[in-house]
Each structure stands twice: as C-alpha cells, then as structure tokens.
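[AMINO ACID CHAIN]
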Amino acid sequence: MSHTPPSRTVEILSDARYVQAESPRWDGRDGTLAWIDMATGSLHRGRFEHGRVIPETAVVVGAQIGAPVPLAQPGAGWLVGVDRRVVHVSDDGIVSPITDDVAAPGDYMNDGGGDPSGRFWVGSQSMPRDPHCTLWSIGADGIPVARLGGVTVSNGLAFDRTGSTLYYIDTLPHRSIEAFDVAPDGALSNRRTVCRVEGGNPDGMAIDLDGDLWVAVWDASEVHRYSPEGELLETIPLPAKRPTAVALVGTLLVITTASIGLDEPADADGALLGVQVDVGGVPAWPWTGAAPAVRGAGSVVEVAL
C-alpha cells in the first residue's frame, strides 16, 4: 500500500519558469545539473547553491530537443537527442552531428539516458500517435543500433547498477513500466510488465541505490516510487500539475515540470522542484565516446543572474 510520509517537503528550486522542462541530469564531472526545455529547444545547465539551482548557460540545440547525456571526460560536452538525430553539444555551445537522421520523417527524439557500459539510449515519439517509433542505443563508436520497435512515446528509462536490467516507459498505450534483460552487447530480451501507473501518464524515471523507481506522473501532480517488483511504495504530491521527469542528486529528488497547456499555471508550474528522500542515486551514466573535433565560435548563452 502506498503512503505519503509527512516529513516530505517539496521546495521550488528555481526562480525561472520553463514551458516544458524535462530530462534533469546530475553531472558527475562537476556536480552541476543539466535539463532541457522542450518548448524552446534548449539545453540548460546550472549549479546548486544554498538549496537552489542557479542557471548558468543555455544553448539552443534544435526545434525538437530530447534527452541529454554527459560525456565521460570533464569539459567534453554532452550528447543530445534532437529532431531526428543525435548531436554533440560542446561546453562552448558548438552543435555537431553524431548520427544522421535515424527517426522517421515526422517523428522526433524524446527521452533517454546512459547505461553503465557507456552507451546512450534514446527513443523517438510519433506525431500523430502511432506505434512505429524506435528505441536506439549509441555506442562509443557513434553508431545507432535499433533495440526496440513498435514504440509510441519513448519516455522514462533507467538501468540498474549492473546494467543487466533496463526499466522503460513507452507512455502510450498502456501507461506501464516495463523491464528487459540487457545482454553485454546491449541486446534486449525477456520483456515484462513491472506495473501499470495509475492517475496520469508516466513520464521521466530515475532509479535509486535500493533499485526503487521514481516516476513523474504527468497531469497527476505526483511522483510515484515503485519497488523493482512494481509495488507502489510512496506517492509524493506536488504543487505542479505536470511533472515531467526526475533525477536523484544524492538524496535530493529533483523534479522538472511543465506549464505548457495550462490555462492558469500555478506558481510551481514550470519550475524545478526538489524534495529530500531517504535513499539517493548516482550521477547520470556518461557516454564513453569521444567528442568530435570542431572549430569555430560557440553559441552558448550566459544566463543573467
């Protein structure tokens, strides 16, 4: 049975409000936070200071931005799923393609993340909604490998610490968390349903050191915590209607939210939120490939403080 511990206090971490903040990532290289705003196609980075997230830079990457993942080396930038491909974004704002267009025309990259083996996993979503999209992995060689077809809206994705189990959310049509066995070469097998998510649409997901799954539930004003077996362990009510994704920064659960589509957004809608939890997580698994050699002026925008 789920419960809501009375000790959980949800705080607003950001002064800024975003139209559709998504995909928070704890950067293990320097302890900062990255996130995106899907509505503006931008990758944001900020630092933690006195219990707040202080924005530092923003880079416009493309029209339809999806998930970011850090590279392993400090200063080596990020991979980002955007539009129909994956690109590299350097720390000085230079955007370079890693793959050609891999998503089908009319589709675009959505959520994703790294695995303990150094691959970047990213999936596409379809507009209009139809189950013809794909989940890919990108190895250190930069070559995309299709791992799962028949996807509609590729969303939450998390690997256990061994990398042998993938937890995955294709939000539509079943609103469920699924699990796969992962072979050393990245092949997926033994697909099974962990649980159905009630109350709204499951979106971004993170895993803690106990293996429990934290899921942002769009339109439910909630984050849910599930055991690896699918038991609902905890529900955290939020002051924002549309939480989009979560990341564990130590024991701080960071929650991105959206204001898009709301006639009268509340103060927290579109903010970055935070709540202290009992079990923490690890920084985002990095991509172990090399940054492309690029020259030229960057387009990074310093955020006014």
In short: The mean pLDDT is 93. DSSP finds no helices and 25 strands in the chain. The longest strand covers residues 52-60.
